[in-house]
Amino acid sequence: MLERLSWKRLVQELMLCCLPALALSAFFGYLPWFLLASVTGLLIWHFWNLLRLSWWLWVDRSMTPPPGRGSWEPLLYGLHQMQLRNKKRRRELGRLIKRFRSGAESLPDAVVLTTEEGSIFWCNGLAQQVLGLRWPDDSGQNILNLLRYPEFTHYLKSRDFTGPLNLVLNSGRHLEIRMMPYTDRQLLMVARDMTQMHQLEGMRRTFFANVSHELRTPLTVLQGYLEMLHDRSLEGAARDKALQTMREQTSRMEGLVKQLLTLSKIEAAPALSLNERVDVPGLLHGLERQAHTLSQHRHLFSFEVDNRLQALGNEEQLYSAMTNLVYNAVNHTPTGTHITVRWRRLPHGAEFSVADDGPGIAAEHLPRLTERFYRVDRARSRQTGGSGLGLAIVKHALNHHDSRLEIVSEPGKGSSFSFVLPERLIAEKCP
């Protein structure tokens, strides 16, 4: 419609331009000259409007076009409407790109967009952390110049992206990299950090190896004595020693299995509601009697318990944590050690601590004490029946109560194991 309207206006303008020439030629003659002058004036007017349009497009660049008359009015109006539509489309495209980048930033993987040759034209924030890229400084850089690993270079150049590439960075980080072609000559690279999974797999292998080793020793002892009993009859002291040793090894295996079951139960427990009222003073009074029985008068005990101070949480897990800390102090300190157990109020919560004046622990062992089956002195642990799982149980039980185990020790000056329950898990008896 605008096109037909524009042609009509052009014809009308030409006719209006010729009317004065026809009128003047009726009086003076010289019709061709008057027509030439009229058409020349019309061309000059169109040329002037063309200059205004060129100025607006290349110099002014404002959203509003210059005012137009005649046949120029629909043209300038159409250009203005087209510019408005393009602006709207740019806004929509900008929002679409923003949503894409926002979604890519929220992904748990590093994402890099490259050309088929490997030139980077976008990456998310995680790619900067995991792969060490810098954005926008690395825009246009070839990714092979930034990730200099022969396996990655071969993977990218082979163009065989049917399976992922497992890459170990110089930092020790394990990555699973996938390349996916999309659109025309562009690649989408997704790198997933598998470091934690590799660590967990290593821990799993170590765990089963340790369990197998811990069970093999008592089973070997039992098998040896059973073969002796089968081959020959034992009498007197030899028989009593064999039976006592077998009972000890059976008890050791039973304790190991119980602690493994306890640890598995605590680890697999869902999030606790932590609304159960726990009578901690009552538990500690019972634990004091058990500690004296276990010690057999080899240690000196001081139980400093705030009898009004109770807690909210899971009674079984809290009692397991406290019991393991006290039993560790009894089992791993020599005769004559003074063991102090405290349950007291602090400004920011309630603290449970077990301190001793024993030989202490060297600093290099402290970060690993809560690992499964880790022992400072393996020979002594086997003599005392220790399984190396006690502090691992304590760690996981405290994690469920928003607390953590604090260990302070110095060789020759004793050790202290403590944890603080947060204020929201504290309950006190009414006076």
TrEMBL record:
For this protein, the record's InterPro entries field holds:
BphY/WalK/GraS-like, HATPase_C_sf, HATPase_dom, His_kinase_dom, HisK_dim/P_dom, HisK_dim/P_sf, PAS, PAS-like_dom_sf
Q: What class of enzyme is it?
A: transferase
GO molecular function terms listed in the Swiss-Prot or TrEMBL record: ATP binding; phosphoprotein phosphatase activity; phosphorelay sensor kinase activity
Supply one GO BP term: cellular response to phosphate starvation
Catalytic activity, reaction form: ATP + protein L-histidine = ADP + protein N-phospho-L-histidine
Q: What is its main location?
A: membrane
* Recorded GO CC terms: plasma membrane
Question: What membrane topology does the UniProt entry give?
Answer: Multi-pass membrane protein
**The protein, known as:** Phosphate regulon sensor protein PhoR
**Species whose genome carries this gene:** Intestinirhabdus alba
